[in-house]
Amino acid sequence: MKRLKILSIAVFAACAFTACKNADYKTSPNGLKYIIFDGGSKDSTKDGYVLKMHMTARISGSKDSFLVNTYGKMPYFDQVQQIPAGQPIYDPREVFKELKKGDSMVAIIYIDSAIKKGLTHEAQLPPFLKKGDKIIYTYKVLEVFKEDSIARADYQKEMEKDLPRQKKEQEEMMQKFRKEQEEARKAEEAELEKSGEKAKQIQEVQNYLASKKITATQTPVGTFVKIDNPGSGAQVADGKFVTVKYTGKTVAKDSTFDANQFTVKLGEQPFIRGFEDGLRQFKQGGKGTIYIPGYLAYGKDGNGVFKPYEALYFDVEILNVSDSDPNVQEHGPNDGHGH
Predict the structure, then answer these.
(1) Intra-chain end-to-end CA distance of the chain, in Å
(2) Domain 2-146 annotated CATH 3.10.50.40
(3) Closest CA to 200 of 293, 118, 273, 138
(4) pLDDT in tens, 160-185
(5) Closest Cα partner for 185 from 274, 248, 314?
(6) Which of 152, 177, 188, 208 has the fewest CB atoms within 10 Å, i.e. the most exposed one?
(7) What is the spatial distance between Cα 52 and Cα 321, in angstroms, rounded to a whole number?
(8) Is 252 helix (H, G, I), strand (E, B) or coil?
C-alpha cells in the first residue's frame, strides 16, 4: 500500500510537470483548463466549506520556476465560494467546489488568455512573467472542513507546527541578504580605497573635528566617536536590543535633519553601518557623538535624501540595552488567534 501511494504521487507529480499533455482536460465556464484525479471520497463539497491542501504554482514558458510550493510546509487553506454570475474570473478557485478529500488537481492559467480576457495587461505583468507563459497549479486535498470554526482551529494548529520552519527560513534568508550586502559593501569600499575617495571622506571628518577642536577616537571600522559618558549598564553588542535617543546632523552644514528615539536589534537589521559601529562603543546610560564618513553612512545613493557619500554625525544617548525587545509585550496562549 505504501509503495502504491508513493507511485501515485510520483505519477501525479510527473503529470503536473508536463502539464498532462495526454490527459483529458476539462474547460470551466470561464475558460480554465483543469483535470481532477479522484481520491475516492463520496462526499460532496459545498459553498462555505474550507479546503486544506498542499499546492504548487509553477511558471512554464520563458523561464521555468516555482512560485509556491507548500509540500513540507504550512498547508494552504481556502474557502469554497460561489462565483457570482457574470463576474470575470480566471482562477483555479472557480472549480474548487468540484474537489473532495483525497482528490488531486492540475489547473493551467495561460497568460495570453488572461490578457485577452482583460484581466491584466502585458505592461502590468511582473518581471518574471511574459506573454506565452503559463502558470501550472497543482493541488492535493488533505481535508475538507464543513465548519469555518473547525478550519480556523486546524489552521492555528498547523501554523504553530510550522513556526520553527518559518523562523529558520527567515533567518536563512536574512543571513543570505546580509552576506550579499557585506560582499557588495566590501567591493564598493575596495573601489573607494583604490580611487582615494575613502581617504578623502575620512579626511573630511577629521578636518571637521579639527575645526571644532573636538577629540574623537577612530574605531577600526572607520567611525569617529566622542564619548562624553561611556555608561555603566549593559554593553551594547550584536544581538542586543538597543534603545537610543539621537539627533542627526550633516557635517557639511552642521544642520539637524532628524531627532528621535528608536529600538534596534544590533547586527541583525539593516542599519547605518557607521552608526551601528559607534553604538558598540557605549554601555547603557552612555552619551556621546558618532561622526560617520560618507561611505559608512548612506553611501553613494544617499538614501534618496542626502548627497552621495555625505558625512553625518549623531548625538546619542543609550537609554536601554536588553536581550528582549522592550516594545513587545508577552502574550498568553488565549490572547487571540488569526486565520
Answers:
(1) 35
(2) yes
(3) 293
(4) 999 999 999 998 998 898 888 889 88
(5) 274
(6) 177
(7) 44
(8) coil
